[in-house]
Specification:
The structure is a homohexamer of 269-residue chains. Chain A has 269 residues and is of the alpha/beta class. Chain A has 10 helices and 12 strands. Strand 12 of chain B pairs antiparallel with strand 7 of chain D. Chains A, B, C, D, E, F: Keywords: Metal-binding.
Chain lengths: 269, 269, 269, 269, 269, 269
């Protein structure tokens, strides 16, 4: 599909990643498109029930390659459900992370960052493309104020938003990376960011980053992996709709309402 | 499917191989089963046209694992055709080579061998199980006589049967391996076979085997890969039908009539 | 040190792990021992300030081996602080996870489990030794009731306790693994546990475990890595004191009061 | 030998290949040179019997390196025979495949191709050098007509020439690769050749190529590995003779009459 | 330390090497510096006894990285001794081999070589930098004369200087490599050196080099590894003192008097 | 050759090693056998000049396997010289190190050791077989006395015998390993030997062994690699002669008089 390649070129994908069409017949006409973060069975069933012809997800269904798609597991079940219903599936993963208007760019926009640059510039892309973004807040904020803005900007998930650092510490320079960003700590330190917003931080990377911090910075804000990437969906849907209209196609484009964050509730002190 | 596992246990498969269900819903009832060597598009379309519920092939559709089953290639096209038509696909490959009553056993039977043993015994199976077989002809034959028997026993394919050795040489001890058997030359020599019947022998393995031959033996007979494995299909179909009847299932079991040997004609001196 | 080897034998450590003495002179007399989860600079400074002769931590300081201990980084800084103050450092990590009375055993005890067995039995140890434990609650509980018990048993940390599953779902069989347990999902499913309590679960492993769940089980409870291992410290201190007294040594043994969970506060819906 | 390096430079050899002198004293004078495809014992004995000083073969004797040349196997036997008779051995393998006037070029010439280009251009050579060639027939032919020409151009071997495709299909653009060419299918498809002539095609590569074919093309013609490379010998002998004459050396150059195709007879339908 | 980096830049180190600070607090003032070849316990104890603040050695203490610096081995003992005494340790190894004024340059100077060039030029350095040197003697010498000069230039060690070659053979072009130089034989031959002076030559490399010699050259002179590198120490100490004085620091710089060649006596014919 | 296999079974060779016949026709009669340490050109030429039919060397000619034996290098030159002269070559390397009556056993005998055991027992051999030996001197000696005995027992070579340790230190338990033994230091320490006699010790292994020594032991004695293995030749020749006579063969067996130690002279303090 030409429009998808224009928006999120496959050349921006990381080498370990798999993007592009996963299920579907290329010659079939598409009338309804739905965006989602994860191709879970619940998301697929909902898309099919709504008459979707093309489901575009951020996470790949078959990242680890398979020798069988028999419906003896949830991945084969999804393949059967999709093909039986004539719904195609397409992945826009690390290519959508890196692109202009991609996941990281949308996060930076929502936090109001200016003068943004990639944390890890893409090797084969434009200078503005790459994983993560770092930029400046329009005005300095205390850490707890900034964390509240992050919390408000995200769709509500059970796990909330965890913060490491002093509540009253001042933050001005912000690094963000949608999804799991624990491989970018060196880039975050090199950029001298005051705070790093990402997801899926475990004890050891987070502790080592805190021990290595100078004057306590960068602070860390750990958000929901799902929520950080969900934010990209409405923008992506809007962009795709516009590109398709420019190409003369009349297509409905929507965003899945299913929350695929795995956590259902939390107990806190 | 219990019956398949009983006949050709997955534990007999080689470590690099992938066997078992590839497409289909395990809960669906099966009324018509078809056997074939290769899951080519022609075989799949024919099976679907005949109302087949389960296609059992010797060669895997997805031996190299895939990240996508989109119908942009012939493998994805086969997956779509099968799922859209409600036809399951199952592979019985190196497990069916090794089993008692498997590909190698059927070949040995057709050539009338006695006192047969595996060329490469299966590590986790019975002593009678393993890749290839070696056994004795009931009476000594000249090489050209034995080659004629091999030729007559096989389904006719364009490429015929190639022979290396003296026409009048005497053969008594015969090694066979359905499909490509060029990794078993050491076992063939250790068994002191007079002739080795297998498929897909290329110039270098065949030449080195001829150079290393003692008194010109083992002679070599190179047959069609497809034909050598096709011989197993009727036996396999019969066995499966019997097992299913014993379990109280009334199922039609057939063999595909499509020739999937790739060659269409030959020019010879 | 003989007493440490008796309690947590090095042979129980995983192959990638490094346990035993890290800093210190073996001939020096030990009067005060302190236990902690992490050898952070704050923990080391506090231990030194309290006149500690031997600091025993669960996490290794030098898991990734080093070519330099210059005080140009926080690990070298810790080495200098310890040697300058005459305080030794010793690690009891995956050996303490696996041992009887080790981290996993203590968690199982605190949750009141009976008939406990290791999730992944130790290859070179007793049958009761190994990573993780699975056992039965004395009576069935609803998931939210059990989660509350887990929450109450843990030292309070900012991130709290996250739960995936239905509040009213019934749990009887419980799997636990102190620290990061995402490599044990196969063992948890094989054990048919109703719920799995562990730490550091990220989006993809947790989501895939939820998709693969049968009837929604196992439920997941994600606790603080630090908190799950802290629970072992008082028991470990008590055991070591007893062993040393039996050997005729009069030694003070304490537990560090420093919270080394990296998170300082949380925002929840 | 300078002349050999000029004609078939070692820099054109593939990285896994071994070319150049294998046996012989560099200072010894050469009066008689013989070319052959394979250094079999029969070829070596014949060369020695004819008083050959230098045997040049296409296939290496010691492609897999050896720790012993004792005459306990056929390779050591060949080394002894050569050294005892004062006959040198030299290999021109993938360098002779790639060179201008090399194996692939000779095949293209014999089939009358024009506008030829390499299928896989050599990295370190001229633009006209590389493995395989693709070019145009002077006029369109039906597949069976073209196959007849291929058959007539080759030295007669038992196995003949196998063809996959429709007899009456039209071919104009032809890809050729002497020896085993199954690694070049991607290049053949990219070149949009109507037919691919090569050797040693086994069931799986041939079948997958037929399944992936668009409108049935490229058709496949499988010839004898030996025969496809033998065609190069007279040209090579002529070229070497000329170069040596230009250098003022009076040398006899011949081609071995031994057929080293391993197959002796064939049975066809 | 800026002065050290200026003299022996870390970028000149080989990829497998580890150079720079190993022990010590960067903020501590340095008054006394001592140079040595090896950080043996005897060298460290002597340095500490003399009030040294910084010990600079050619060989790394922790070339193989460690998970523990407990004083249960001689490396941990050295770390404890250094930190307890407030003495830092710094390594200048293959970077000091390669640099201008480094180990190889000093050897070339002492032997009076002119027109020197590196044997293996440094990839990231100046053209004059790299491992080993090759240059011309001011006048031709007999091998035994040149060996006597080498012997006289070296600090006396038990093992002396071993020579392979004819006593009266003429040498003019000399290759040198401080420390173990057996990986540079190809470069020595390419440079057409008459003699190669290096250390730690074992039977097989030395024998193969002698067998491969043309007209018996290059001759070999095997010196003490320690002695060949010790020669660099006075020059290094002088250079560092000068750089520090230029920067306005008044520092004592000395050379350790401890002989760390492992051999104590020799018996010769 | 049956006699060789009986004396030094190939199964005792290390996995990286290559032993057995290297050059020669197995059917040729053998009248004169010569033993040598190294198959240098000088040794081969001397053997050929003396009418030798079989040269048995300790070191392999083709340890690194080769793709060519052209006489463009010294190894190919040796192959040509041997085959042209009808002299076979056979290697008895690590199998001869390990065997009873092998290199290590002969060294232990010459030093008068009793109660000898292998340093590294052979996995597939008898308990008395393996690399190296450790045993007791009949009476305690001072280190310099023992070194003198070692020196006197060895054939004279230029490099002499180097010793690390106190002249007057007492040695009783002695470890020996013919050839390069620096991989056996752990076994030497575990055996609590007072002194270790081996060859080819370089600076770093020797220094680290000295640093790790307890009370200065084990002392080290570094002998000529060639000399340590030459000692085995007369015993080996005698044993082979006896075995052959028992088999009824009348064969001359001798030892090469060529010294293949690479060093020609030494300068010492």
């Amino acid at each position: 599909m030409v429009a998808v390649e224009e928006l999120w070129p496959a050349s921006l994908a990381e080498s370990w990643d798999t993007v592009g069409p996963v299920v579907g017949r290329p010659e079939r006409k598409v009338k309804r498109i739905m965006f989602a973060v994860d191709p879970t069975l619940e998301v697929v069933a909902d898309a099919v029930a709504r008459g979707t012809d093309l489901l575009i997800t951020h996470h790949p269904l078959l990242l680890r390659p398979v020798n069988s798609v028999a419906a003896t597991g949830f991945k084969g079940e999804a393949v059967h459900l999709l093909i039986e219903s004539g719904c195609a599936l397409l992945t826009a993963h690390t290519n959508a992370d890196s692109a202009i208007g991609g996941v990281s760019d949308v996060l930076a926009d929502i936090f109001g960052l200016t003068d943004t640059q990639p944390l890890a510039p893409s090797k084969d892309g434009l200078p503005e493309e790459g994983i993560g973004r770092v930029g400046m807040l329009p005005e300095p904020l205390q850490l707890h104020e900034f964390a509240s803005r992050v919390f408000s900007a995200m769709p509500a998930v059970a796990g909330g938003v965890r913060v490491a650092g002093e509540r009253a510490g001042i933050v001005r320079k912000v690094a963000v990376c949608g999804g799991a960003g624990d491989s970018l700590f060196d880039a975050v330190r090199a950029a001298e960011a005051d705070v790093y917003v990402t997801a899926d931080l475990r004890h050891h990377p987070a502790s080592e980053a805190r021990e290595a911090a100078l004057n306590g910075k960068p602070y860390l804000i750990d958000v929901s992996h799902f929520a950080s990437e969900w934010l990209w969906l409405p923008t992506a849907a809007e962009s795709l709709k516009n590109v398709l209209q420019d190409l003369g196609h009349e297509v409905e484009v929507g965003v899945s309402a299913i929350n695929t964050d795995p956590w259902d509730f939390i107990l806190t002190p």
